[in-house]
Amino acid sequence: MNYRHVYHAGNFADCMKHALLTTLLRALSRKNTLFSVLDTHAGIGLYDLSSPQAEATGEWREGIGRLLDLPSDTPDLEPLKDWLALVRQVMKEYAGKMVYPGSPEIVLRALRPGDSLVCCELHPEDQRALRRLFHNNPAVSVHHRDAYEAVTALLPPKTAKRGLVLIDPPFEERSEFTDLVKAVTTARQRFPTGIVAVWYPIKHRSPPRAFFHALQDAGHRNLLNLELSIRPPLDPGLLNGCGLLIANPPFKFDEEGAAILSTLCKYLGDGNTESLVEWIVPE
Ligand code: SAM
Fold first, then answer.
1. How far apart are CA 5 and CA 15, in angstroms?
2. Nearest CA to ligand 1 atom 4
3. Do 19 and 197 form a contact (C-beta atoms < 8 A)?
4. Cβ contact 143:118 at 8 Å
5. Which of 82, 90, 112, 130 has the highest count of CB atoms within 10 angstroms of its CB?
6. Catalytically annotated residues
7. Where in the chain is the site Interaction with substrate rRNA (predicted)?
8. Whole-angstrom Cα distance, residue 127 to residue 149?
9. C-alpha 168 to ligand 1 mean position (Å)
10. pLDDT tens figures, 168-210
11. 121 pocket-lining for ligand 1 (C-beta < 6 Å)
12. Structural domains in the chain?
């Protein structure tokens, strides 16, 4: 396990994932009934962007760094408003330090009394860091456990009939897209009403398209795909873009997601940024 998210925290891909995640959580909060979130690849929850690791790549400067440089009342930032307010709030709580919230911290802040968060993290040090962050919080449980095993073992949620499964792998394994097809299928069989969101990298076009075809062949319906590309996917050695594939998206999430991606297009990348929102399979 070589991947450490601190090198990439706050980059354009995190901005896309976390802005969309915030909006998914807002949709879940609209109904009164309890919800539960399973974050299968949780990371460490909070990332110090002034750390040597984050500074070694400087990726965050082209992501959250650009957005935080804009005045917070910039009118067209409206679709990112809730997520950026959360990021600024976390930094304020840490005395203005460049501390960036990852997916479990974003979820935590959306929980209402009775809602719950279940995190899995396989890296020994990272799962310890996550446990330290959430110790004594009864709404959160942290498992030192393989994500794909967790999808079988921890679904459906014990405490709620609604919820979200966020699957955000590091794509270190060649089998990751194949594993994802199995994981999405298992998650939906065990938790049919749940939203399942899968982050994936776009290095070149064909692997994500093969992933969608495999999901279609497995009989999946109600699949929405959102992509942000900062350059044409010509060099497969680079992270040219990323996507979030969502099964059972909330009502009108295609419209909300499109507004988020258009805003990110305007401020991230070098003028060639493009977004895409498409139904892979309608409801
Ligand atoms: N979701 C996090 C966020 O948005 O803040 C970032 C997660 S990072 C992309 C992927 C994480 O998955 C890493 O922390 C890595 O250690 C962990 N990981 C890798 N393989 C795993 C597995 N099989 N099961 C659970 N966690 C795994």
1. 13
2. 103
3. no
4. yes
5. 130
6. 168
7. 3
8. 16
9. 6
10. 999 998 899 999 999 999 999 999 999 999 999 999 999 999 9
11. yes
12. 5-281 (3.40.50.150)
What is the ipTM for the molecules in this complex?
0.99
Specify the DSSP element, H or E, that contains 261.
Answer: helix 253-267
pLDDT (tens digit per residue) in 221-266: 999 999 999 999 989 899 999 999 999 999 999 999 999 999 999 9
SS3 36: strand
72 has a pLDDT exceeding 90: no
> Locate tokens 């959160």: which residue?
140
Q: Give me ligand 1 centre to Cα 242, in Å.
A: 16
Q: CA-CA distance, 48 to 37, in Å (whole number)?
A: 24
Q: 59: which residues sit within 8 A by CB, 6+ positions away?
A: 7, 8, 9, 10, 11, 12
